């Protein structure tokens, strides 16, 4: 009986990297244990994150992330995937809770992108419109349909709201769940210097994004696992940021900095006035001795000048 492609791939990988089967009675129900298990080589392999695309479509820049080829399928190095995933989670936690958007335009991962965004308070996009970042005002004005007749009790001072241009904030981080389907988003984000976290399969170019995660982007379990970990990192980062004491308003901070700078300048001037080299020296008895002023007169200078010799006059006579 011929072996299946999955069995052939499992033979290629070492035994210690295979996921360990845990009995249901010993499994922990805590979310922390689940995240720790998922953020490991065994968790990634259980989600089929190591299976890449066909070797005939392998990108040259992905060679450093490829463990080998078996049965015409590229096998990704899960150690590199784990390191890249941890780095991406740290970046997502540091950026949170600012504007973060999940992009998943393939129909099969629409639900994954929506769930990850809703769980972390981020935004999500299931269909990318060209110019959403580089020409955001025009795209929003064309896509948003606002009916002013439905607005009731509109005050006189607020009538200019209808004529204002819509304002949209650019995202601080873009997370791509299917990179090859959103190359327009990659170009626009790079043009505006917006960092990108992307799942890069073996047929993707990792040099186009700042934080590539080499993993299988065709498997729903792999994409769902990575999206869930990034969503959890964003939630944790937002919780840590909210637990910190709030910063003072900018006006108070400016006033405090101005007062501190004035105090430091006053202290510097006082120390400069009381410097030891500006004080008169002391004699052996401890009392201050006053220096005699220098008297330089023209008379003293002429008196001290040498007289001309009389030998010249005697010779002339």
From TrEMBL:
<feature type="region of interest" description="Disordered">
    <location>
        <begin position="240"/>
        <end position="317"/>
    </location>
</feature>
<dbReference type="GO" id="GO:0005763">
    <property type="term" value="C:mitochondrial small ribosomal subunit"/>
</dbReference>
<protein>
    <recommendedName>
        <fullName>Ribosomal protein S2</fullName>
    </recommendedName>
</protein>
<comment type="similarity">
    <text>Belongs to the universal ribosomal protein uS2 family.</text>
</comment>
<dbReference type="GO" id="GO:0003735">
    <property type="term" value="F:structural constituent of ribosome"/>
</dbReference>
<dbReference type="Pfam" id="PF00318">
    <property type="entry name" value="Ribosomal_S2"/>
</dbReference>
<keyword id="KW-0689">Ribosomal protein</keyword>
<dbReference type="InterPro" id="IPR005706">
    <property type="entry name" value="Ribosomal_uS2_bac/mit/plastid"/>
</dbReference>
<dbReference type="InterPro" id="IPR001865">
    <property type="entry name" value="Ribosomal_uS2"/>
</dbReference>
<keyword id="KW-0687">Ribonucleoprotein</keyword>
<dbReference type="GO" id="GO:0006412">
    <property type="term" value="P:translation"/>
</dbReference>
<dbReference type="InterPro" id="IPR023591">
    <property type="entry name" value="Ribosomal_uS2_flav_dom_sf"/>
</dbReference>
<feature type="compositionally biased region" description="Polar residues">
    <location>
        <begin position="282"/>
        <end position="296"/>
    </location>
</feature>
<feature type="compositionally biased region" description="Low complexity">
    <location>
        <begin position="297"/>
        <end position="317"/>
    </location>
</feature>
<feature type="compositionally biased region" description="Low complexity">
    <location>
        <begin position="258"/>
        <end position="271"/>
    </location>
</feature>
<dbReference type="InterPro" id="IPR018130">
    <property type="entry name" value="Ribosomal_uS2_CS"/>
</dbReference>
